[in-house]
Amino acid sequence: MITDRITLHRASARRGFSVIFDELWAAYLPHIGPQAALLYCFLQYLSGGEIPNPCSKEWGDEVCQPLGMSVEESHQAWARLQEMCLLIPAAEGYALCDPNPTPQAKPESERKLLVDLEKLFGRPLSMTEITLAQEFEQAYGCKLVLAAAAVAVEVQARSMPYIRQVLLNWQAKGISTVEQATEDTAEYRRDKARRHARRGGQTKRAASPVQTASSASTSVTYDESEIVLRRIKRNEAEERMDGVGY
């Protein structure tokens, strides 16, 4: 069940926001961009109670429309605010933090993971995907998450639930390094090719005795996957996946 509204409050008691913090423009604007700066100002205006969940319909009506942003643009802006620690998870919602003269960004490794995932997916990550990517990195490490993402891209299953399933499969096998994951993936391809060759060879012999198993196609394909995604509940995603082939 999706919660349509989340709480948002100021992390400090600083008031008088009719004058926008100088630090927002001088120190943060080059890092977050104009859309994130605008969203930050609007969230300050709305803070003190409940706001729409960023993945709810109300978010588009109450936040995106007044600001002239698309939902995707607003999610990217929200993510940049999180990256620069201007928006942090809090009890039952989020807290807005005041800008500092010296911006405090999240670690470079975390930001690199998000950039590399976006390159693999060929699109910006949603806020839900960013949250899940951060959870995966904490549990498995950046390099292993990217290796699992490469598997997901290869089978055309560009989704966080598929990446999670690959990581869980590797964990069950005791795989904890990229080298082990690479070898496991290569072995899977070889097994798949052998099964495909055997099935293809049997079919060809039945149709034409002159044909041999060696002439069968050995193209490597993965099993079809059905991935069921559920939208986030508050700041966490709830999803399930059925029938994963890897």
Question: What are the salient characteristics of this protein?
Answer:
single chain; 246 residues; alpha+beta; Arc Repressor Mutant, subunit A; two-stranded antiparallel ribbon; 8 helices; 54% helix; disordered C terminus
Structure class: alpha+beta
Share of helix, binned: 40-55%
The CATH superfamily label of the largest domain reads DnaD domain-like
Residue ranges: pLDDT <50 for 5 or more in a row?
Answer: 203-244
**Judging by the overall fold, what is the CATH architecture of the largest domain?**
Orthogonal Bundle
Strand ordering within the main sheet: 2-1-4-3
* Span between termini: 28 Å
What's the helix-strand series? Answer: EHEHHEEHHHHHEEEE
How many domain modules?
2
C-alpha geometry: elongated
Report the major sheet: 4 strands, mixed
Which band does the percent of strand residues land in? 5-15%
Rounded to an integer, what's the Rg over CA atoms?
23 Å
- Give the tally of β-strands: 8
Mean pLDDT: 74
Under CATH, the topology of the largest domain is which?
Arc Repressor Mutant, subunit A
Overall CATH class of the largest domain? Mainly Alpha
DSSP summary: helix tally? 8
Give the SSE map.
Elements (H helix, E strand, L loop, with lengths): L4 E6 L11 H25 L2 E4 L4 H11 L3 H13 L3 E4 L2 E4 L11 H14 L5 H14 L1 H13 L5 H13 L5 H30 L18 E3 L3 E2 L2 E2 L2 E3 L4
Parallel strand pairs: 1-4
Antiparallel strand pairs: 1-2, 3-4, 5-8, 6-7
Helix pairs in contact: 1-3, 4-6, 5-6, 6-7, 6-8
